[in-house]
Design goal:
Blueprint: H1 16-28, H2 32-44, E1 46-47, E2 66-73, E3 92-100, E4 107-111, E5 117-118, E6 130-131, E7 134-135, E8 139-140, H3 143-148, H4 150-161, E9 167-171, H5 173-182, E10 186-190, E11 194-196, E12 202-204, E13 207-212, H6 214-222, H7 231-250, H8 258-269, E14 272-274, H9 281-291, E15 299-303, E16 306-308, E17 321-323, H10 327-335, H11 342-345, E18 349-350, H12 394-405
Parallel strand pairs: 1-14, 2-9, 4-15
Antiparallel strand pairs: 2-3, 3-4, 5-8, 6-7, 9-14, 10-13, 11-12, 15-18, 16-17
Amino acid sequence: MSQTGPMAPHHRRTVFTVIACTLLVLALATGTFVAVFYQHLDANLHAGQAIKHEVHKKQKGPKAPLNILVMGLDNRDCAGCDVDSESGADGSDTTILVHISADRKTAYGISIPRDALVKPVACTAGHHYTSRGVTTDLVQWNAAFTAGGADCTAEQLEKNFGIYVDGYITVNFGGFKGMVTALGGVNVCIPFELSDPNVAHITFEPGKSVHLNGPRALQYVRLRHVLDGSDIGRMKRQQYFISQMIDKADSAGTLTRPDKLVKFANALTGSITTSPNLASVKQLVKLAKQVKGIDLTNIRFITVPNAVYDVPTTDPYYGRVKILPAAKKLWKRVSNDKPLTKSLAAGAISAGGSGSATPSNSTSSSPSGTPSSTSSPSATTSAGSGSSSGSSSAPTREIADAAQYGLCS
């Protein structure tokens, strides 16, 4: 089956660190209730297929680095999930590889655009991307899930980028809404009005701290046809929301109340499928304990260096995304368990309270929750490239980029 047609709306979100926060609370709790609740949560979990690895793991042992693949599923089989009048394609329109360092002090998530074209692997045979009657020799990234599930996506990542995947987690729309609801909602900063006529004519008014409940949060992360309408723009907003969600889950009192914890854990475990090695509360708690010492400011989200194909509208590659050669530097650092360089981290979004979209090496002292003074997006460099000129104008460019994506600087 081929992937055809123009770029379609989709979503991205990672819940791995939120899962860790939740399960850590469970791990530290005691009593008969917790033991019974463990059994209930175990029954909620679903195990997917094992990964047929394309590469070998370089470092082994209990303190080896970990790479967890997190995917969001493009289905709408829950009440109120049809926010964009799309039927969904049962694909993985979210892909974020979460790298956890061997010393368990840092972690970074790397988003991979669903429209990126990559080399096929065995499980994607016959799924070459086709447009305007022309078949390419490449496969659209999210076709792997449609072709063979989460394990196929993991194999595709290993084959194309040479990175060993330790396990995977997938989550659906309903679980996302349920988790946000259980947290009591999440606050975001919106610099100016965001309105998407293709998503049920949804409009978000500007504000320093706009409260989003579960349904509104789903609408926010689904916004696509705003500003430049790019896939990368939506990915940036979703990364920002993830950072705010993680901070809310980690904040004092959010998951210490039994009622909130039960609702959150139910929504989480009832909506995820994991690789067999993670398909139990015991294993997830074990993973959570390993990452409990990571400071939230050391958890950052970036996008793999990429660019839209610069071709005429009649070209079959039009509207698709290519992974740039600069990505090799990023994958090498992942493989060798190295931290992000300043250039790769430029524009990274941190989970440490602010969810700031400013570069990690910026010296700006402005409040992170302050809307940008820019009232409209400016023309900037390609989003998500991960490049940085290193000039004194870098902070200014990053502030303009934030406005381009509808983010506060």
